[in-house]
Amino acid sequence: MGSEGNHRKTGPDANAPVAVELEGVGKRYDGTVAVQDVDLRIREGEFFTLVGPSGCGKTTTLRLIAGFEEPTEGRIRFGDRDVSGVPPEARNVGVVFQNYALFPHMTVGENVGYGLRFSEPPGGASREERVRELLELVDLPGTADRDPESLSGGQRQRVAMARALAPGPDLLLLDEPMSALDARLRERLRLQVRSIQRELGITTVYVTHDQEEALSVSDRVAVMRGGTPEQVAPPRTVYRRPASRFVAEFVGDNNVFEGVVAEGNGGVEAGVGADSTARTVPVDVGGETLRVAVGGEADAEDDVPRPGDSLTFCVRPQHLRVGRTENGVRAEAESAEFLGETTRVHLGWGGRELVVRTEDPLSGTVAVGFDPADAHVIGADPGE
Amino acid sequence: MSDGSRGRDGSDGSDESDGTDNRRDRPVRLRDGNRTTRLGDRIERRALTGLAAATVAVLALVFYYPVGTVLVESVVVDGAVTLGVFADLLRDPFYFGELARLFAGESPLAVVRGLLGADRRLGIVGFTAYQAALSTIASVALGLPAAYLLARFEFPGRRTLRSLTIVPFVLPSIMVAVGYVATFGRNGTLNAVLGAVGLGPVDLMFTLEAIVIAHAFYNAPLVARVTTAAWESVDAGAVETARSLGASPARAFLHVVAPQVYPAVLMGAALTFVFTFGTFPIVLALGGFELATVEVFVYRLARDLNYAEAAALAVVELVISLSVLGAYLRYEARHTVTSRGVRPLPRRPLLPSAPTAREVLPRLGLGVYGVVAALVFLAPLASMVLASVTGGDGGLTLEHYRFLLERQRTGAAFQVRPWPAVRNSLVFAAASALVALPMGVVVAVITTREYRGRKLVDAVAMAPFAVSGILVGLGLLRGLVFGVEVAGWRIAVAGSAAIVAAHAVAGYPFVVRTVAPGLESLDRSLIESARALGASRARVLRDVELPLVWPGVVAGAAFAVAISMGEFTATVVLATGADAYTMPIAIERFIGRRLGPATAMGVVLLVVTGVSFVVIERLGGEYDGI
Question: Where is the composition biased (Basic and acidic residues) (chain B) (predicted)?
Answer without folding.
Answer: 1-11, 20-35
